[in-house]
Batch of 2 targets.
Target 1
Amino acid sequence: MPTHLGQLSAKGKRFGIVVSRFNEFITRRLLLSAVETLKQAGGDEAALDIVWVPGALEIPYFCQKLSRKKYDAIIALGCVLRGDTYHFECVSNEVTRGISQVALETGVPIASGIITADTLEQAIDRTGLKAGNKGAHAALAALEISDLSQNFESPQRRKS
Ligand code: INI
């Protein structure tokens, strides 16, 4: 039975990382962990482009921009924290929907490491405490889906 499983190697691969500055205390930790994970998997720092954007709402637009470059996958990193208003839902929903839309429209795999949390404590838990680090999780997902998607490219477009 043909079964497809993505390999977790970053060797020879290029990644674009879009990270938001809003809640930078959290997002910088997501970025460090994502980069470390890619390097541990054999990735070369020179093959990583990091794009800082103002907030989560700007992430899909820049993912779309990067999708025109030759990246094996894009990693989106951000942190949306609940405040007193409905704004949290708007930002969370839009960034999630936008990232999916860009991936589907461009065909470039995008791994999402966007934290949506009710409290700062919950966000910290997801940047290296109880719930691991969402930046590392997104980097691993990017490795897996970039490799997996190669299996479904037409023979001319396949890398190897
Ligand atoms: N951006 C975030 O990344 N996280 C948030 O929690 C957030 N909140 O809560 O407002 C946020 N807002 C800014 C938004 O993403 C845009 O940068 C801004 O609206 C300018 O377009």
Target 2
Amino acid sequence: MTFQSEFSYETRPVRVVFRPGAAVTATPGEAAHLGLRRLLVVCGSRGEAVARAVADALGDACAGVHAEARMHVPVEDADRAVAVVRAAGADGCVTVGGGSAIGLGKAIALRTGLPLIAVPSTYSGSEMTPVWGLTEHGTKRTGRDPVVQPRSVVYDPRLTLSLPVPLTVTSGVNALAHAVEALYAPDTSPLVSVMAEEGVRAMAEALPRLAADPKDLDARSRALYAAWLCGTCLGSTTMGLHHKVCHVLGGTFGLPHAETHTVVLPYVLAHNAPAAPHALAVLRRALGTDDPPRALWELAGRLGAPRSLAGLGLAEGDVTAAADRVAGEPYANPRPVTADEARAVLRAAYEGGPPEPAGDIPLQQIQRGHGLADRK
Ligand code: NAD
């Protein structure tokens, strides 16, 4: 494999604390370290019990618990949360939960500039990114702003013990998708490559152990460690076709986030593989296979995860509409995607059969694929 001798890499100031029990034992210290005295705790309705434990640990530094986070951050939820944070006189927020809770926290930070502490409970990786998302009138907008990047991330593997196996698997594959796309991103770098390889290896090793025994704390720690690495890859690079497809399917067609990532990833990787030899080589090593798209598809099947968009409820007639939307918007990808190719990728994901190994494509086409504008 040739060495990537031209790159840039930006490090953002984020403190990471990782230990079992840290949600309760480390969060108050992180708040003190940041000089915060009145924190609003943000979570979803299902995560309220754990969030209350964090709120209790914060004691007088807790300004309240706002348990209204939902998937894809509807803009009216963001409006309400900003009003709550202002009424509480908070000087920061603690998000307790997965990407939805972190997403609502980021929406607050975007509007108010208040600092965030994230206590993640899934493997989505949002805590390591400056990417925010808001959904309005059926369309999800995303953007990048350093103000939404959590200043402190408290990883507590114990918090993930309650994650049901189906969500464990799909959330884990969501993390894998960040690493996969970071490997062929136009702004990838040797450090991203190292993190992606280690993240993929650790997650692929942890998921079967967790499907067999979801209370295995060692495997939970390994999966959360992988999520940290994969999330860092996401935060450091520009995502491509896979994230664009999932963004359209989630934001416009209402499909569930992690499950959609799990279904789509093998097909996008099969499409991009001929244009991404370095990524393919890294993934072969990390997954111990000659055929990473097929290995990811088999992993999902073996662990009982959904494998078709039809199974997730996408109407057959929406395949073309989604593909046109994907093809019609610019995004960075190692291989250009025509409307027909987007349709073929989506059609294959809709049906859920084994991904076809793609043939070689001309070098000229590969180079044309990079450098487009969208950052997620
Ligand atoms: P989620 O936060 O929506 O959680 C899914 C479900 O699992 C919820 O019902 C939640 O209550 C429950 N849950 C979460 N943790 C649990 C636990 N430990 N035990 C039991 N139940 C638990 O799911 P997600 O996949 O983490 O996040 C999806 C959202 O995050 C999407 O809106 C997506 O766009 C966003 N996201 C953003 C970024 C970014 O960088 N901005 C990255 C990844 C995902």
